[in-house]
Amino acid sequence: MAVTIHEVAKGADVSVSTVSRAFTMPDMVNAATRRKVLQVAEELGYQPNRAARGLVTGKTGNIGVVVPDVANPFFSAMLKGCTARAREVRHVVFLADAAEDPRVEAEVVGAMAKQVDGVVLCSPRMQPTQLERLVGSTPLVLVNRDEAGLPAVLMDSGDGARQALEHLAALGHRRIAHLAGPPASWAGEQRLQGLRAAAPACDVETVELGPFPPTFQGGVQAADLALARGVTAILAFNDLMAVGVLNRLAARGVAVPADISVVGYDDIEMSSMTTVPLTTVRMPMEAGGRAAVDLLLDGLDAGIEPEATHRWLPTQLIVRSTTAPPRQDSGSARVLAGR
Amino acid sequence: MAVTIHEVAKGADVSVSTVSRAFTMPDMVNAATRRKVLQVAEELGYQPNRAARGLVTGKTGNIGVVVPDVANPFFSAMLKGCTARAREVRHVVFLADAAEDPRVEAEVVGAMAKQVDGVVLCSPRMQPTQLERLVGSTPLVLVNRDEAGLPAVLMDSGDGARQALEHLAALGHRRIAHLAGPPASWAGEQRLQGLRAAAPACDVETVELGPFPPTFQGGVQAADLALARGVTAILAFNDLMAVGVLNRLAARGVAVPADISVVGYDDIEMSSMTTVPLTTVRMPMEAGGRAAVDLLLDGLDAGIEPEATHRWLPTQLIVRSTTAPPRQDSGSARVLAGR
DNA sequence: TTGAAAGCGCTAACAC
DNA sequence: GTGTTAGCGCTTTCAA
């Protein structure tokens, strides 16, 4: 079944160490010998057993990636970045889907620890103490979370929130709802802070709603609450929620953006796919995945445990037709009568 | 750094084999001893090195999953099923994203082969001959492809196409466009066949368009072609394309479903998120992922190479408001005048 | 430039 | 019920 290094050695009539060298340190072996070895290996379809190699070198060539939910477009985009970059640097990805469960997150890191050179934790939901317990089991890099002095790739969604707020304020909106996602979301917290910080200068009043599930349904649910609070604009936690909001507004006969403006956060083009093009804060998820892999590997090369290095990635507001100046006759009353 | 079995043995004052047994065959060791061992292991934070274990047992406890594109909702849903099921049976998932490149598919299987117990190939795009070359390197299970006598999980999208066609025919549609996706897609081929087979009995004429990229843009592009052919209904390759179609129709002032009916294929609720709820053929992607993992593992348990076992999963038409009877004044002319 | 041998962390006979 | 020992496939001293 599995063709081993011994068979290649026998076939090429050399010792196993020569075969090994032909692969790992090619110029330490005679050109002719090497050619022969490589050829025999090719014929036999030999592929070094990376697990065995890892056992002795201590380097597996694998990296672990843990996401809260692969089916969430944000995280599948991030995963895409991780796998793509990993491939470029000849590494393989171990994937774990934590199913939005903090305990699973901790558990899987333990399970992977020994078979990987390090783990990328994407938006981990777990408690700081749990996170700290993981430190030392294997090199860790965080994405969109800043904790325990760990190296991290951080997206500046606080700044994105500011951009969105200023955009809406410039249009004349004075009362804006913020729909929160999962409480454990670092990015969500950043957005809220960015919003609060920017609101006074923009002369905007923010209405903080939630938490809601970061889903289509969460958006539907949130839309009614936002409507009842008489806002003229809504900032949704992510594109899924934003689409839910859009749908609920449509169902209630509220026009977007005539009656209410909507802004979401997305990764790629999810939101360009809505029938009413959705204004969004662009989160560079794929780039984040790539950066995380780099950070992890750089840290490993550099020496021991990587220094706590933070890589900030900018976010960008993409304005589309879901935002417009508020009506002069002010949203609230009209909207509530709308149905 | 990494705590080994030896340290646990020393700490518990037993031999390594006792520690090993305490983990792998608990009832072959004295209850008191076991308790002590487990406790010491706990304290030291010992986790067996699965790679080393695999080296001797020949079983890694890992399974490989190869997808054409993680960022595609179809495949992230399938991946979700794989990881969920894998976890339930205490396995870890090795993920590879082939970036829609057949060569990469073959390559990654080779790279993973030695570290996994088997590989799930999701909708592989590679040639039959390439696929055959992979057989033997590691146990393989196919999803949505039937080739080389390999075990496979197959979704009956041919039947889904039939259901969609009959639905549209029942509404009175007589001229229906089929928008093809990637030529290498087995599922696409199935749908086309299902359509062709069902069309005569339904007294329907099918207009076969494509191939198009299975994306939003592909749908935009396809919509114009379909319109020009004067159909009253459109069957899109997947939900992304369907949404593209919807958008382009809206942009051209064509009403859905008044002027044209649209049907897509989707996995979960993507299509319930469109502003005009989209009628779709439901593909059980997540269930497919789970089934594939089961098939792989069952085959391994059963004995040698798994028999070529096929698992067919049904598809289901979900009717929503994007389909309606065609206008009496017949779509074609009206629509073309529409803009 | 090459080979022989030790050993990575673990399990699986085979003794005791 | 427990310990000793021989490897799993590979890399890496150390000698030749």
From TrEMBL, chains A, B:
SUPFAM superfamilies: lambda repressor-like DNA-binding domains, Periplasmic binding protein-like I. Signal peptide: none annotated. Pfam families: LacI, Peripla_BP_3. Residues 3-57 form the HTH lacI-type domain. Gene3D superfamilies: 3.40.50.2300, lambda repressor-like DNA-binding domains. GO terms for molecular function: DNA-binding transcription factor activity; transcription cis-regulatory region binding. Keywords: DNA-binding, Transcription, Transcription regulation. InterPro entries: HTH_LacI, LacI/GalR-like_sensor, Lambda_DNA-bd_dom_sf, Peripla_BP_I. This is LacI family transcriptional regulator. It comes from Pseudonocardia hierapolitana.
